[in-house]
């Protein structure tokens, strides 16, 4: 009966085989940081956190969403950097590059506001141990919300949406990148899983309305649905800010289990990722063999058209 399910047709093009990662076990650091209106202070503060994480054995460091600026539509254009120009035009990414190289670690650099021509993006940069920029993800799904009496925030007033998936091979495995609201769209995570991701990283700043409702829920869902690791990193909570972050940076394993998490204050979480658990869980519960390609398909248009 199972042969009629056509699981190989449930993902188009077919899912790639999970690649053998360069390491099986390693430590990840989630740096839950506060951001002030002093950009230079924010950069120095993030650098110190990265150094502390590396001293504690982290081979991969994840920073929060918009860590170099207050998170507001008024501030994003002021704090934006020209990442492609580099150097003095992008002091935040220059710091990340130098830190990755000098500390010999991989950095998923949270996100910063990026200026490109006449457009602004919410952008995450990934740097390898050599300090080189390996990938740049522009937030695909912009956060527009209006719940009267609770939260109103329209990110699309200021930012443009990115148009590309971002999956990158690093010294600690194949990583799919999303930013905050991207995590709520399971199709993106499914595409990354079909491309052989071991780990999904989502710097994110859920707020005080949606955070308690489903920040943990969507992380566990993306991990359990795709049987891989999910790591998130939030800014620390500032009760006096216009946009108040929920916090609760978290690492979730491939069965949807919470492996490490925190509350809302500034902190650095160090946790271990063990990729052998992916194969174990996929053997325990072989979802890849149970998908009904005869009934539904996930189509990766970017792969299909290339």
TrEMBL record:
<protein>
    <recommendedName>
        <fullName>CN hydrolase domain-containing protein</fullName>
    </recommendedName>
</protein>
<dbReference type="GO" id="GO:0006528">
    <property type="term" value="P:asparagine metabolic process"/>
</dbReference>
<keyword id="KW-0378">Hydrolase</keyword>
<dbReference type="GO" id="GO:0006107">
    <property type="term" value="P:oxaloacetate metabolic process"/>
</dbReference>
<dbReference type="Pfam" id="PF00795">
    <property type="entry name" value="CN_hydrolase"/>
</dbReference>
<feature type="domain" description="CN hydrolase">
    <location>
        <begin position="26"/>
        <end position="275"/>
    </location>
</feature>
<dbReference type="GO" id="GO:0050152">
    <property type="term" value="F:omega-amidase activity"/>
</dbReference>
<dbReference type="InterPro" id="IPR003010">
    <property type="entry name" value="C-N_Hydrolase"/>
</dbReference>
<dbReference type="GO" id="GO:0006541">
    <property type="term" value="P:glutamine metabolic process"/>
</dbReference>
<dbReference type="InterPro" id="IPR045254">
    <property type="entry name" value="Nit1/2_C-N_Hydrolase"/>
</dbReference>
<dbReference type="InterPro" id="IPR036526">
    <property type="entry name" value="C-N_Hydrolase_sf"/>
</dbReference>
<dbReference type="GO" id="GO:0005739">
    <property type="term" value="C:mitochondrion"/>
</dbReference>
